[in-house]
Amino acid sequence: MSLANGLSYLAIPGPSVFPERVLRAMQRAAPNIYYGELPDMVPGIVDRLKGIARTKAHCAIYICNGHGAWEAAVSNCFSPGDLVLIPATGRFAHGWADIARAMGVKAEVMDFGKRDTIDLDRVKTRLAADDEGRIKAVMAVQTDTSTGIRNDIPALRKTMDETGHPALLMVDCMASFGCDRFEMDAWGVDVMITGSQKGLMTPPGLGFVYFSDKADQARERARCVTHYWDWRPRVDPPMFYRYFDGTAPTHHLYALDEALSMIMEEGVENVWARHATLSQAIWAAFDHWGQDGPLEINVTPIDLRSHSVTAIRAGSEKGTALRNWCEDHAGLTLGIGLGMALDTAPEWHHFFRLGHMGHINAQMILGALATIEAGLNAVDLPHTKGGVVAAAEIIAASTQNL
Fold it and tell me: What share of the chain is helix, strand, coil (3-state, %, to 5)?
């Protein structure tokens, strides 16, 4: 017998859960792509995207996933032979480096492991030693989806400013946008990339690249740029099709428009606060379970933990056993331990992730945690009982003054 029949819950760190309002917005006939409702809608989409990023900078939309957004950012800022510095706190910083190298850009990776944040002193020392200004950009990830580490972007900007180095600050916000606080202008970020399928609650297929005037000046010298990835024609174009260099992603735009409406109705500050509170409930549960046994959150310092994804160390192959039990017997899909070990190594089974981004609320998180606690018992993974109670106390306390 399986108890998984019914509405399943995809609790991986993207694609996230799509609201019914977003799905319904897509269920329509194809629109006119030359004039009318669709062309009239897109400027408002761009304005709201800028509002969430707290920026007056430019925003280009691409039909792509996060890897495409990486390539768009690299192609508009660099030429073959340019040098970039990439502080890595997980797999996805290395992925951005791979994209840069494939385009002829020299990517110098400073690897800080899978459990620690960026060492700002090391970054400062490296930039200060770059007397000739060869480093064209520092490319960082705000939240690495594989490790759950949340890096301090304002502190990184301050470190760069203290050296007086002219490098661009480029930030990957794929896993954090719409979940964690991000303020592009106030934080001095020159380029930011994100996508539709996580905090923006929209099916995969749209990538976004925000860029400052300083970054656009680098575009003047960039020889990696190609026709499709050029961001300039996509900003305030005289003809609608130039937003997308061709046919618009029509139904994705309807979905995104509805998702942005939901975010604006709730208020961006409230969205950030909701993610923070639900994250604290998740951490309370896992920290409680891990008091007596091998289970632990990958990131120990609370201020470095992401508000969109939590990576877990199970200490044995029972990490995979738990994932399988939750999906097969309860309808809850947890994320694999991406990048924590080689997928051919036994240790690959020691990790899993819980995504908590976008369209989530208290009953969804408490239900997921109760399912996980049942699974811990079912697969006999040692833990201290009562993690769900600890999470529930966080939820209750957060509402007492409402």
Answer: 45, 15, 40
